[in-house]
Amino acid sequence: MIRERKQLDRRWLWVGAAVVVVVVFFSVRSLTRTRQQIRVAEVSHQPLTSTVSTNGRVEPEVNYELHSPIATTVKALYVQPGDVVPAGKLLMVLDDVQARAQVASAESGVKSAQAALDAVKNNGTLEQRQAAAADLTRSRLDRDQAKRDLDALVKLSATGAASAGEVEAARQRLASAEATLSAAEQSAKGRYSAADLARTQAAMSDAEAHLAVARNVLAQTQIHAPISGTVYSVNAGATEFVEQGKLLLQMADLKHERVRAYFDEPEIGKLAVGQPIQIQWDAKTGKVWNGHIERTPITVITYGTRTVGEVLVSIDDPDGQLLPDTNVTVTVTTSSETNALSIPREALYSEGGKPYVFKVTGDALKRTPVMTGTINLTQVAITSGLNAGDVVATGTLSGQPLQEGIPIQVAQ
After folding, report:
1. How far apart are CA 333 and CA 338, in angstroms?
2. In-domain check, residue 298
């Protein structure tokens, strides 16, 4: 009995010793375990702006393209690209021999059409009217003579000096003369119908239209500045042959320009009319022009390998230095907060579409859900979940992922 009790006591002694060893092991391990060194940031209030940058192309609000009206040669050129010219200045002269020949031909066509119209309105030409008057006079004389002959034969027939056949023949001659006279009178009064008048009037209008076109072409062989502005493109030189319709030069008022910007499809939803935009051109390093969105995309297009929406940007401070067709960088401010509670963007994580951060609590990390607002390339606005002065982890020095509950040491 005593022996069994001693054996039981010995067993409990060994169990107690084992428990002490385990407790000591984990205590030592806890005290000596390496702490993860982390980088942190303090949650604070600061201005926060969200921007989107893309490329764009400068274009005049109103672009004037001057084309060759005919196939010809350039006789003289009086401007060079970059020249600022007043409205009406002679810029270029084209060989106008062909144009003058076309005007002469069109003028001849108008005269012919006018003569035909006058003939219809006046019941024929002068020669035709004179011939018709002569025919009318002759027909009246023939009718009068036929009537006198019939009257004489009727009297002779009463005395038996003329036969009934002679009288009848005289009547037929009178009827024929009267018919001829009626036709002559009708011709003298109205030789042409309403359809003839409409046809000659249409021919006159057509001839006048051809003349107007020919004169307009001739006028275009002397090319004048349509506005006061800058000639920014010249596409033909003196003595050079140009095809009909060839673009000769372009000019615009460079103080009235805009930018056509190309925003990728995912960014379109952030855009709104009136949002401020900054414009930069590599040829003018350090120079910035200000503008605003004038029109947002109404559709998307394929632009190279991108699917983009075209945005028209009005330039608020034009100075004539931006040249048409130049490529520029535009940056739009899509949102701005003057006193946003924010954290560095690298401190924000997301799982299943739900954002969270690792908040520093004592010497450990706590996974904390948050709600976000404005986000830019470096900062994130926090609308709930954190307070000013809280500290969040932005990463580890070792590159290991952050985990909730691990022992940490803030890197100095």
Report:
1. 13
2. yes
